[in-house]
Design brief:
The structure holds two protein chains of two kinds.
Chain A lengths: L1 E3 L2 E3 L12 H7 L6 E6 L6 H5 L9 E6 L8 H7 L10 E8 L1 H8 L10 E6 L7 H11 L7 E8 L13 E9 L1 H12 L7 E8 L10
Parallel strand pairs in A: 3-4, 4-5, 5-6, 6-7, 7-8, 8-9
Antiparallel strand pairs in A: 1-2, 1-3
Chain B lengths: L1 H8 L6 E11 L5 E4 L14 H10 L5 E6 L4 H12 L8 E11 L1 H10 L8 E9 L4 H10 L6 E9 L6 H12 L6 E5 L8 H6 L3 H6 L5 E3 L3 E2 L12
Classes of the chains: A alpha/beta, B alpha/beta.
């Protein structure tokens, strides 16, 4: 969905954007769009969508959701086409596709004013190397978002992104694909840090052990 | 786990809480698959945290939105306590979503629903899923209950199974018709276990188009339902 003021344009999110022509995208560049929201059902994010931030910097919202990101095929397309550096007014950035932390960091590095971002949703794939370096990288880029109010994270496995001291989140959504009982304490601490501000909490945790094993944590 | 939930109870500004605990279990053939809907009861060891959740919820004075879904939820023991606990939220709760973890809803449970749901004066959205209808009066009783929820505009039933040896689908149609006639209910969904949902056209196949004509306020309708014992006529397939 693409919005400009009261005008709303919708199109079907077919994998190859059949029927949505380049002309259509050129047309969209001529109006003051503030919001792009694209829900992917196929396996490829079209380069038109990824390249769309090159339009005038009126965007306040940039969102791409992949319904089943596990099968996303053209992740390299993101690296090649997605560049947010013209979006001076970006307040909301959501990209739910299974990126490696390095690629995510690269994409986020193009956001020109991270300090004004209010809403941030992202997904990190388990690339088997979520070690100290990656963790430092993650902490470093998250530290830039001082004004963040809503955070949605989707990880294959929990990574200790804490401490995020200084944040006063109003909304927190955590989805973990492989959550272990050891992570409960960490998550509790994370949530506890936001107890003065948190208004919306969404937890979706997938465990690999039987329920009773969590009771003694 | 207790500490964790108690920590949530200290979030005094919380207006929306959604908790989904899903169990990953080993598949028959290969790899892991996730299951939180249709897992056999034998595979689940109940997680006795529902009473604690009631306690946590009572601490959250401003809660407007609640969604609970977790494997091992024991509504056999705690159905009544859960809904009685919700009465404390009678004037704030606007959205309620509950996954009943394959619980068989009995007549006494229907009476509890009939008593408690209308008391949630702010309730606008009700989504209940993954339960078994085990009482022949469910459809009629539920429709009557829905009618008494004064502010409700969205009702969703998902992953519903009918566990009755003799089941007449006309009862379901009557319930739908009765629910649709509630003037402010604009959004009704019934989803099957696979999460499939359909649009207005599918409902015509359910011979419900006449109801739509009578109820122009309906914006959306999704209707599949599955049963243990009843085979829908072939013309209903693919609903």
């Amino acid at each position: 969905m693409v919005e400009s003021g009261s005008e709303i344009f919708s199109f079907f999110d077919r994998p190859n954007l059949t029927g949505v022509t380049s002309k259509f995208f050129r047309f969209l560049r001529h109006i003051n769009l503030e919001k792009l929201e694209y829900r992917l059902q196929g396996k490829n994010i079209p380069s038109q969508i990824l390249g769309f931030p090159q339009c005038p910097p009126s965007f306040k919202t940039w969102s791409v959701f992949c319904s089943d990101g596990r099968y996303l095929q053209n992740i390299e397309n993101i690296q090649k086409h997605l560049n947010l550096n013209r979006l001076q007014n970006l307040k909301k950035f959501q990209l739910l596709a299974p990126l490696s932390l390095d690629l995510l960091n690269q994409v986020l590095g193009t956001i020109p004013r991270p300090e004004i971002l209010k809403t941030f949703a992202f997904q990190v794939a388990n690339d088997g190397d979520m070690k100290e370096n990656s963790l430092s990288t993650a902490k470093a880029f998250l530290a830039k978002y001082q004004g963040l109010e809503h955070l949605a994270i989707n990880f294959e496995g929990w990574i200790d992104l804490i401490p995020l001291n200084g944040w006063r989140l109003k909304g927190l959504s955590v989805e973990i694909q492989a959550f272990h009982k050891e992570n409960l304490r960490n998550l509790k601490e994370f949530i506890g840090q936001q107890k003065g501000s948190l208004e919306d909490l969404h937890l979706r945790l997938r465990f690999e052990e039987q329920p009773e094993t969590f009771l003694d944590v | 786990m207790y500490d964790f939930l108690e920590g949530i109870g200290r979030l005094k500004r919380l207006e929306a809480l959604r908790i989904s605990f899903i169990l990953k279990t080993k598949g028959r053939d290969d790899g892991w698959f996730t299951s939180h809907l249709n897992m056999g009861e034998r595979e689940i060891n109940y997680l006795p945290i529902l009473p604690l959740l009631f306690s946590v919820l009572s601490e959250l004075k401003g809660l407007k939105e609640l969604g609970i879904s977790y494997f091992g939820a024991d509504f056999n023991k705690d159905f009544e306590g859960f809904f009685q606990g919700l009465q404390k939220k009678a004037h704030t709760l606007e959205i309620l979503e509950v996954n009943f973890a394959n619980y068989k809803i009995q007549k006494r449970d229907l009476e509890i629903l009939a008593k408690t749901l209308p008391q949630l004066k702010s309730l606008e959205t009700l989504k209940i899923r993954n339960f078994v209808i085990n009482d022949a009066g469910f459809f009629k009783y539920f429709a009557e209950t829905i009618h008494r929820c004064s502010r409700l505009w969205c009702s969703v039933l998902a992953d519903v199974k009918v566990g009755l040896p003799e089941y007449n689908p006309q009862e379901m149609l009557d319930m739908l018709k009765s629910i649709f006639q509630k003037r402010n209910l604009a959004h009704v969904e019934f989803r099957d276990g696979c999460g499939h949902f359909k649009d207005f056209n599918s409902c015509e196949r359910l011979r419900l188009s006449k109801i739509y004509e009578e109820c122009p306020h309906i914006q959306n309708l999704i209707v599949p339902i599955s049963t243990y014992h009843f085979e829908f006529p072939s013309s209903w397939r693919g609903i």
